[in-house]
Amino acid sequence: MKAQWIKDLAHATLGELSALNRFWLRTVARSRLKPRRADGKLWVHLGCGRHYIEGMINVDVNPFVRSEAWLDLRKGLPFAPESVDAVYCCHVLEHFHEPEARKIVRNCWRVLKPGGGMRIVTPDLRKAAEAYLRGDADWFSDFPDKRRSAGGRLANYLFCRDQHRLAYDFGFWEEILASEGFAAVAEKRPHDSTIFPSAELAAFEYETPAKHTSVFVEAFRLVQSPASR
Fold it and tell me: What is the pTM of this model?
């Protein structure tokens, strides 16, 4: 795992360069942002990394991974308002400070169609705290550092050698999403969704109903824009 300062430097540099790419996507290369699905729905996968999902517009800040759009999520999304049917964001938002994560969520709200939904997956602060209080070191993995104690593994899970900026549970996500205009915020399980077909989720969601440590949250854009927006 690369040191966080190296990632920060790379993201700062690439983020500025990706602004040109965002302009290119909005003008010359608009076809790259068109729906990839047979049903014509526009699904967007934010922060895809090496986990490319067929049928979605995959977005990542790293220009060396396979994606349709090379973008820094903090700089905005290149989709027209009310043009996206669904957004999938798995183990991404914990890598941002709260104001940045809120801005990303706000931009997702902006591009979602009325009735469109967003699915967020992040490490689960509540589950981790409960495992720590039980002294259950085996609940955690030993990544990124080899540690045996529950406390050491909790630190791995929550902070990931300074890669994670913030920890969330469902209640915190509910608070954030509601404040950014989302409605019908609900906690889900792996492969269980009101937005995506379960069979498709099972094909790309690596955690399973039998074994998962993350919090899964779904929320929908209000049909009518709040007056405050």
Answer: 0.86
